[in-house]
Each structure stands twice: as structure tokens, then as C-alpha cells.
Amino acid sequence: MITNTINNFKLDGKIAVITGGAGFLGEKHAEAILEGGGIPVLVDINESAAKKKAEMLSKKYDSEVHWFITDITKKESIINLNDSIISEVGYVDILINNAANDPKVDAGKNPGWSRFENFPEENWDLDFAVGLKGAFFCCQVIGQEMAKRKQGVILNISSDLGIIAPDQSIYSINGLSQDLQPVKPVTYSVVKHGLIGLTKYLATYWARDGVRVNSLCPGGIYNKQPESFTEKVERLIPMGRMANADEYKSAVIFMVSDASTYMTGSTIIVDGGRTCW
Predict the structure, then answer these.
(1) Residues 79-102, mean pLDDT to the nearest whole number
(2) Which of 10-19, 171-180, 252-261 has the lowest mean pLDDT?
(3) Is 17 within 8 Å of 66 (Cβ atoms)?
(4) Residues 269, 238: contact at Cβ < 8 Å?
(5) Alpha-carbon gap, residue 244 to 155, rounded angstroms
(6) 151, part of any domain
(7) What is the mean pLDDT of residues 236-261?
(8) Which residues pair with residue 220 across a beta bridge?
(9) How many domains does the chain have?
(10) Care to name a GO molecular-function term for this sequence (predicted)?
(11) How far is the C-alpha of 273 from the C-alpha of 270, rounded, in Å?
(12) Which residues lie closer than 8 Å to 214 by C-beta, 6 or more apart?
């Protein structure tokens, strides 16, 4: 029997929940699902942004797009979300844990606030609540439903900084003393490393229940950052450039489709070679 490998990449009718769906990367993940023939469900805490993004995508692709407002840091909210999706859309086939805080190093706080020695406990708690506890709750509720049905795919969106530590020199500002230099906050890297750990744990936990769990580590995406910053980043990347926003969509389709049926517990790094150095 001859099989058509390309058909394995199709997502026809698959329902995909995307947390942080109203954000920059969330939109691109939704586009990947739509281009594969699936049905994206945008989950976000920002009602106006989620509604606007869903309407835009639906019009752009002339396809079905759903949106729900949920605080993923609260388990009861995820339980209600799952019930609503099953009732209004159908059982979830794909879960993309994309939501995360990405605090800017120059977020207008006191000078040096982002440095490890000064990093506020409340920021630690919030960043972990959104980026890691939120993924934990979504897997616990939606993933458990998948395991009961003996089918499903979970994709955790990590980062190149889930593999390596940030190079803090790219954030440095001339003229500032060392103790005031901005840095990438500790929580971002720790949360992204944690998602890879969660991926491996659940991949083995549900391996015989028909649920695959993998993680994607994207590198930095060009999004109109200052040239002075992008030049520093590009020097760290063997390919000499940051990613275009659409360059991760093919990896997402591969990882959530039947093209990767024998892959679980794996991490795919798409970073222009940065983590090789």
C-alpha cells in the first residue's frame, strides 16, 4: 500500500487550543493550524485582543476561529474552559501551551530592577503562574481529557533560552554602572527550562495513553526592535539574522500533526544555530 506522506501534515477538522492566543506568537500558531486545515481556539485573558484577533484570522482565512477569555493561573477557570470548548466546539485534539510573561528589561521600573539580586518576588510568582503553572493546569485538565480519549497532542512553547542562558551583554547600556545594567529577568529562562522538564515528564506519563507531548524552542523573532539591539543579537546567531515570524509555522504543523506520530518527549530547536555556539 502506497501512502502519501504529505497527507500526514494535514490537520483537517482538528481542534487546537492555543493559550496566549491573542499575542504575537499565538497568532502565528493559529495561522499554522488554519493553514493545516484545523480549527484554532484562542485562549487569552485580554478579551478585546482575543476577539479582534479571532475575527481577523477568521476573515483572513475564511475559516472557523473561536476565542475564550480565561485566567490560566486558576485551575477552576481551566475546568470551565474545557467544558465550554467541548460543549461549543468539540473535544480538544491539540493543546499549545504558548502563554508566558516576557518582561522587558527596561520596563520603566527602578534602575537595576531586573538584575537577579533585586528581582521582585511578586514578579517571580506572576511569571511562574502564567508560564509554568498555567501550562501545568492546562495539561492537568485538557491533557487528562485527551488521555481518557486515548488521543491528543500537547506542544509546549519553550525558547532558545530554555536551552541556554541569556547573553546579558546584548541588553547593556553604555554609561551605566554594572549594578544598574539591565538584564533579561531570571524568570524567563527558568520558566522556559521548566517547560522542557514538564514535556519530558508528561511524555513518559501518558506515552501509552495516546497523548504525545513535545516542546518547541524558537529563537528570537524580528519584530521592529531597534537596530542597535538586533545587531547584537545577530552576532550571536550563526545564520546572522533573527527569525521571521512565519518561520516557525512549519515546525508547529509537523509537531502537532500525524507527521510526528512516533515523536514524544522531544524538543525541536529552531534558532538559526544560536544554541550551537
Answers:
(1) 98
(2) 171-180
(3) no
(4) no
(5) 20
(6) yes
(7) 98
(8) none
(9) 1
(10) oxidoreductase activity, acting on the CH-OH group of donors, NAD or NADP as acceptor
(11) 8
(12) 153, 154, 155, 156, 199, 203, 255, 260, 263, 264, 265, 266, 267, 268
Residue 273 lies in a domain: no
Separation in Å, CA 54 to CA 10, 40, 50, 57, 63: 21, 9, 6, 5, 10
| Phi/psi-derived region of residue 206, left when phi > 0, alpha when psi is between -120 and 50, beta in every other case | alpha
The secondary structure element, H or E, covering residue 16 is strand 15-19
Q: Evaluate if residue 103 carries a pLDDT over 80.
A: no
Q: Is the pLDDT of residue 110 over 90?
A: no
Confidence band, pLDDT 50/70/90 cuts, at residue 85? very high
200, part of any domain: yes
What is the Cα–Cα distance from 18 to 29, expressed in whole angstroms? 7
Q: Which residues form the domain of 91?
A: 5-268
* Strand bridging mode 15-19 / 94-97: parallel
What span, in angstroms and rounded, lies between the C-alpha atoms of 269 and 256? 15
Q: Are 49 and 22 in contact (CB under 8 A)?
A: yes
pLDDT band at 1 (very low <50, low <70, confident <90, very high): low
Residue 145 resides in a domain: yes
The predicted pLDDT at position 102 comes to 85
Residue 18 sits in a domain whose CATH number is 3.40.50.720
Which residues make Cβ contacts (< 8 Å) with residue 184, sequence separation at least 6? Answer: 105, 114, 161, 166, 168, 171
Query: If you average pLDDT over residues 54-64, what whole number do you get?
Result: 99
Give the model confidence (pLDDT) of 185-205 as tens digits. 999 999 999 999 999 999 999
User: Residue 111 — very low, low, confident or very high, per pLDDT cuts 50/70/90?
Assistant: confident
